[in-house]
Design brief:
677 residues; alpha/beta; six-stranded parallel beta sheet; 39% helix
Length: 677
């Protein structure tokens, strides 16, 4: 109450009613060591109800994670360790950035999947519960989390995967910003989770007609959830928001605003506290709660003995664990990358699939799949088993609980949230595929991956009107620049098969950001000069130089439109106009280069420029300048063979050449010819 009052804004009510549950988790249920927040063997805690950040911050303070009382006094203030919603990498003990509701549940599911994958990589033969890689994922979720559609997607996957290491405590307080949730919510959420296949329990603190925080009942439910190893567990905890505030408990006002001095004073009196004191934490309270450090250290020391025995018995696996957990790539791994002969014709989605097949033996940390589009996305590593309980494997996809190929079903948003959880959990490198146009379904998760700097890779295929007959619903027009608008996300649109291999290499060499590969359905010619990884990794490079070495015009293109730029250069050169083709697979990588390199590729003296991409032209003006031209699409596509679409929409070499002449004219380079009179 004091923290929100001092901040002038925040969410006190949920943190008040969840305080006993959070205390129980941090003091008794969870295996963790506040003196080592990154201990590999720790349980993970996810506060999906990120608006109730104080639920987490107060336990981090009480447990001894390094937060001070002054940090709680600085809630939601500039440069504080207690921002409005928990932020990964900002505050010790915060396992993921939460706030957008439903995302945390997805992250928790991803963490539980990652824990099982890591056990399969490093200690598959240990008895249940006996491996140093066995631990629990605990999550607190709110009604807002459960209402968001992403919660359905990830909860269905969690049940299908039989993630017995996952426990969700659902705070059922029947209140949101619009007050009583009855106005919009009436389904039986416990039965919903039973229908998924979860182990479901209910703890009702209102059950006897009077509010009683029966912590022992909750503790028994948590222990029963821990004992259930064949299913994820869901505990519906019925609380009263803002209890015991006499006037604002059980109201929408308690959810998202300060209670006010009078209500805080009255509440403290009810609790037997001095209403004149703020942020009052008696020394004996801290002495008691900080004992969790001793218990945590003892648990960690016991774990370390088992871990040391495992390392001694498995030196090769231990060395691999060290490498993967630090996201170091193995020596010589790039030698496995495929190369493609110039003159061949290969779709970049197919080239990406060949890259994955080639890397499978050398990068065991790399795993992933698609949202039901594996055959189209080419995301299935050849011969690799599916990550699935054995009873759900199919003839097409044999596998086991320790498999590698992920199947998300038609759940793009859930896939995105789960990929984030996998990356947050440890060193493995997840990827997920769908059509580029459906990146819109997963955008909130992609944005959070960028915010948290997670090395997640998105395989987004069918990247333009080049997918043809499926029509405008499936043809991405605005998606490329919309995604480029997310800070910290690399969008890579390779021009051919060799650029695709180089792009995968560059993406995997980055460990501090997500990347999206935008890949074609249609075949593209393989060019000379696209194998050079160093050039591709710079984001843009000269693919074909002007015949004179001094271009009059520069043609910039990405992906499938590089073919149009190459064709336009040929037409211009035949007319005596020296033209340079620049392939720009990744705008973000190019913008990171120093000024000298950027000027080498795009000399400021060459003002006549054309950019061509089969999408909206937003963003290209920065590269072509006021005198340049952009050839693109400012409208939706249509259903027809892709070559017809390119022709009808003016995406042709002839159109690019004409745009080059227009840009030359704008710069004053087009002087015309004498008529003889």
């Amino acid at each position: 109450m004091d923290a929100v009052e001092k901040a002038g804004s925040g969410h006190p009510g949920t943190a008040m009613s969840l305080a006993p549950a959070a205390y129980l988790l941090f003091q008794k249920a969870m295996r963790h060591d506040p003196s080592d927040p990154t201990w590999v063997g720790r349980d993970r805690f996810v506060l999906s109800a990120g608006h109730s950040s104080l639920t987490l911050y107060i336990q981090l303070f009480l447990s001894g994670y390094g937060l001070s009382l002054d940090d709680l006094k600085s809630l939601r203030q500039w440069n504080s360790l207690t921002p409005g919603h928990p932020e990964y990498g900002h505050t010790a003990g915060v396992e993921t950035t939460t706030g957008p509701l439903g995302q945390g549940i997805g992250n928790a599911v991803g963490m539980a999947m990652a824990a099982r994958r890591e056990r399969g990589l490093f200690d598959p033969d240990a008895p249940e519960g006996a491996s140093p890689f066995d631990h629990m994922i605990w999550c607190i979720a709110s009604e807002g989390d459960i209402e968001e559609g992403v919660s359905h997607e990830v909860s269905a996957i969690a049940a299908h995967q039989k993630l017995g290491n996952l426990v969700v405590v659902f705070d059922s307080n029947h209140i949101s910003i619009e007050d009583d949730t009855q106005i919009a919510l009436s389904e039986d959420i416990a039965k919903r989770y039973e229908a998924y296949g979860w182990h479901v329990q209910t703890v009702d603190w209102t059950g006897d007609g009077e509010y009683s925080e029966n912590v022992e009942a909750l503790n028994q439910a948590l222990e029963a959830a821990r004992a259930e190893t064949g299913r994820p567990s869901f505990i519906r905890l019925r609380t009263i928001i803002g209890w015991p505030a006499p006037n604002k408990q059980n109201t929408g006002k308690a959810h998202g605003s300060a209670l006010g001095a009078a209500e805080i004073s009255a509440t403290k009196q009810i609790m037997g506290m001095d209403p004149e004191k703020s942020f009052d934490v008696p020394a004996e309270v801290l002495e008691h709660t900080r004992k969790v450090v001793e218990r945590g250290r003892a648990a960690r020391q016991e774990w370390e003995r088992a871990y040391a025995s495992w390392r001694e018995a498995n030196p090769e696996r231990a060395a691999e664990f060290d490498r993967i957990s630090h996201r170091r790539l193995p020596a010589g791994w790039t030698e496995a990358l495929p190369t493609f002969e110039p003159g061949a014709s290969v779709a970049t989605r197919k080239a990406s699939g060949e890259v994955l097949n080639s890397l499978a033996p050398v990068l065991p940390e790399l795993w992933g799949g698609s949202a039901d589009l594996a055959e189209s996305n080419n995301t299935t590593m050849k011969g690799e088993p599916s990550f699935i309980p054995e009873e759900y494997q199919t003839k097409e996809f044999p596998g086991s609980r320790y498999g590698r190929t992920l199947h998300f079903g038609i759940r793009e948003h859930g896939m995105g949230a789960i990929l984030n959880g996998i990356a947050l959990h440890g060193g493995t490198r997840p990827y997920g595929g769908t059509f580029l146009v459906f990146s819109d379904y997963m955008r909130p998760s992609v944005r959070l991956a960028a915010l948290m700097k997670l090395p997640v890779t998105y395989v987004w295929t069918h990247d333009s009107i080049g997918l043809g007959e499926d029509g405008p619903t499936h043809q991405p027009i605005e998606q490329l620049w919309a995604l480029r608008g997310i800070p910290g996300l690399d969008i890579v649109r390779p021009a051919d098969a060799n650029e695709t291999a180089a792009a995968w290499r560059a993406v995997l060499e980055h460990t501090d950001r997500p990347a999206g590969l935008a890949l074609t359905r249609q075949n593209l010619p393989v060019y000379e000069g696209t194998r050079d990884h160093d050039k591709v990794a710079k984001g843009a490079y000269v693919l074909e130089e002007a015949s004179t070495g001094q271009p009059a015009v520069i043609l910039i293109a990405t992906g499938s439109e590089v073919e149009l730029a190459v064709g336009a250069r040929k037409l211009l050169e035949e007319e005596g106009i020296p033209a340079r083709v620049v392939s720009m697979p990744c705008v973000e990588w190019f913008q990171e280069q120093d000024t000298a390199y950027k000027q080498l590729v795009l000399p400021p003296s060459v003002r006549a420029r054309v950019a061509v991409e089969a999408g909206i032209t937003l963003g290209w003006r920065q590269f072509v300048g006021d005198e340049g031209e952009v050839v693109g699409l400012e409208h939706f596509g249509a259903s027809a063979p892709y070559k017809t679409l390119y022709e009808q929409f003016g995406l042709t070499a002839e159109r690019v050449a004409a745009a080059a002449k227009a840009s030359l004219a704008r710069t004053g380079a087009d002087k015309g010819e004498t008529t003889g009179n």
